[in-house]
């Protein structure tokens, strides 16, 4: 049984999707949470959902833009001021971006996706690692994607950013293992989150539900993943039970990455 009693975890992108699911899992196991997101309403919804299953949970929320380095420093400083330490960090905030062939992919859109998905992850690691190195322990999980370990058609910005997350994870895991810090990434496939729903709507419009069924028909498990399945994996990787897993990228996609 994983125990998060007296553990402090920061989660970016905590206002929805995988961030919310991980927060629920960690709170149910006694963890103290700092949820970070740009979406104030989403943060409140996450807090309410967590409290409905873990009424004694200690939860703080911080509105922040992960592409703003000062905002990132502030949410790290806030956590230290409030709780005095950072045991775990789910570096999760991200966007998909618009879909298009590389030749037609807008330069501004590319920069936007890279800024959120890659720069935001880097800033988070930069400031959290300083704290964890001083502590002499800690665990980080970055959100990559199956799009970070293989190609994804019509999503140049997304694939490039997630490949970058994989590189940052492996490189930093090698750098910081000697300081008692484990750094890993998850590579989710088709998990039914608001982001994936939005992607299907970009592809298929009003027929997105039918497109989704066709999409998962080629998955070995014939279904979408559930956010809570990813949340449970994150909770494990951030826990003391997974301390010797380091510089790894763990797919959670029903086996689809290995089918072809």
From TrEMBL:
Coiled-coil features, chain-numbered ranges: none
Keyword annotations of the record: Oxidoreductase
GO terms classed as biological process: bile acid metabolic process
Keyword Oxidoreductase: yes
Source taxon at top rank: Bacteria
SUPFAM superfamilies found in the cross-reference section: NAD(P)-binding Rossmann-fold domains
GO molecular function, a single term: oxidoreductase activity
Family membership: Belongs to the short-chain dehydrogenases/reductases (SDR) family.
Protein name (record): Oxidoreductase
Organismal lineage: Bacteria, Bacillati, Bacillota, Bacilli, Bacillales
């Amino acid at each position: 049984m994983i125990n998060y009693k007296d553990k402090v975890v920061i989660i970016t992108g905590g206002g929805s999707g995988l961030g919310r699911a991980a927060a629920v899992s960690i709170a149910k196991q006694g963890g103290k949470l700092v949820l970070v997101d740009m979406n104030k309403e989403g943060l409140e919804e996450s807090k309410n959902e967590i409290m409905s299953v873990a009424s004694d949970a200690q939860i703080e929320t911080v509105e922040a833009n992960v592409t703003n380095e000062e905002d990132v420093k502030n949410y790290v400083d806030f956590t230290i001021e409030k709780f005095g330490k950072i045991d775990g960090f789910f570096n999760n905030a991200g966007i998909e971006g618009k879909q298009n062939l590389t030749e037609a992919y807008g330069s501004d859109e590319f920069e936007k996706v890279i800024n959120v998905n890659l720069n935001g992850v880097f800033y988070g690691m930069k400031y959290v690692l300083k704290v964890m190195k001083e502590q002499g322990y800690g665990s980080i999980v970055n959100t990559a994607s199956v799009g970070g370990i293989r190609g994804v058609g019509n999503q140049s910005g997304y694939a490039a950013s997630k490949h970058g997350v994989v590189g940052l994870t492996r490189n930093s895991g090698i750098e910081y293992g000697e300081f008692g810090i484990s750094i890993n990434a998850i590579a989710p496939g088709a998990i039914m989150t608001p982001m994936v729903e939005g992607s299907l709507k970009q592809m298929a419009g009003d027929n997105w539900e039918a497109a989704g069924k066709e999409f998962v028909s080629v998955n070995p498990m014939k279904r979408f993943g559930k956010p809570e399945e990813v949340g449970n994996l994150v909770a494990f990787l951030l826990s003391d039970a997974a301390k010797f897993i380091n510089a790894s990228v763990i797919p959670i996609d029903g086996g689809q990455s290995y089918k072809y």
